[in-house]
Amino acid sequence: MFEALILIIEDDPEIVDILRGYLEREGFRTVSASDGQTGLVFHQQLKPDLILLDVKMPFLDGYGVLAALRRTSDTPVMMLTALAEDLDKLQALRIGADDYVVKPFNPLEVVARARAILRRSQGAKTEKSLRIGRLTVDPVSYTAVVDESSGARPLDLTRTEFRLLSHMARHPNRVFERSELVDACLPEGDALDRAVDSHVSNLRRKLTAVGLGEMLTGVRGVGYRLNGQ
């Protein structure tokens, strides 16, 4: 993990210098881009292990960069931005961010969160597919498919919905508290416990559409459970 390459997409050179100094001191390799379009080119050319992404940038903002990345890549992304509202955080999560840090930030916290993201990312690459009844979840390819008479039908899930599904699929029938799901699947927010309900509701709706709505149930006053079959 200490040889991981981190791409910093940030238009403030002072912030870039601070991040580069702290990250390289901890053994990471870094490269930087000062606008979103250049960042996308560097991502395609260099295949970084993690991206630190600003939101307000020239040519293409961070949300546009993130959306473009998620059309072709699962590279982990940590948003670094002065936008502190919950709606901004939720928008980043829906598009596919892995973490969300508000400026001004503590560089040591950024390094710690980068390590955590890379640890989860590397762990996922070694996991085997998880199968529960007609549902198969593949943490490596970020895909979930349902067996039907006509063949395998993929589920169109957001990144956060997939994280929730795969996390619960590792332990069928276990009840997960909301706070645990936040820590495991939405590590970027301290005040986003209620966001779990929204993501789970959307996930259950998509499971219902393929006849598996009964798999995901709520446990009153506690959290959620993915029922094994």
Oligomeric nature of the chains: single chain
Order of H and E elements: EHEHEHEHEHEEEEHEHHEE
Level of helix content? 40-55%
| Average pLDDT, all residues | 86
Shape designation:
elongated
Radius of gyration: 18 Å
- Please indicate the count of domains: 2
Q: Look at the structure and give the CATH class of the largest domain.
A: Alpha Beta
Instruction: Assign the structural class, choosing from mainly alpha, mainly beta, alpha/beta, alpha+beta, or little secondary structure.
Output: alpha/beta
Query: Based on the structure given, which CATH architecture of the largest domain is correct?
Result: 3-Layer(aba) Sandwich
Would you mind describing this structure in some detail?
The structure is a single chain. The protein is an alpha/beta fold and 229 residues long. The N and C termini lie far apart (37 Å). The protein folds into two domains: 5-125, Rossmann fold (3-Layer(aba) Sandwich); 130-226, Arc Repressor Mutant, subunit A, CATH 1.10.10. The longest helix is centred in the middle third of the chain and has 19 residues, at 107-125. The strands form three sheets. Strands 2-1-3-4-5 form a five-stranded parallel beta sheet, sandwiched between helices. It has a four-stranded antiparallel beta sheet with strand order 6-7-8-9, covered by helices on one side. The protein contains eight helices and twelve strands. 33% of the residues are buried. Helix 1 (13-25) packs across helix 5 (107-125) and helix 6 packs across helix 8 (193-209). It is elongated, with a radius of gyration of 18 Å.
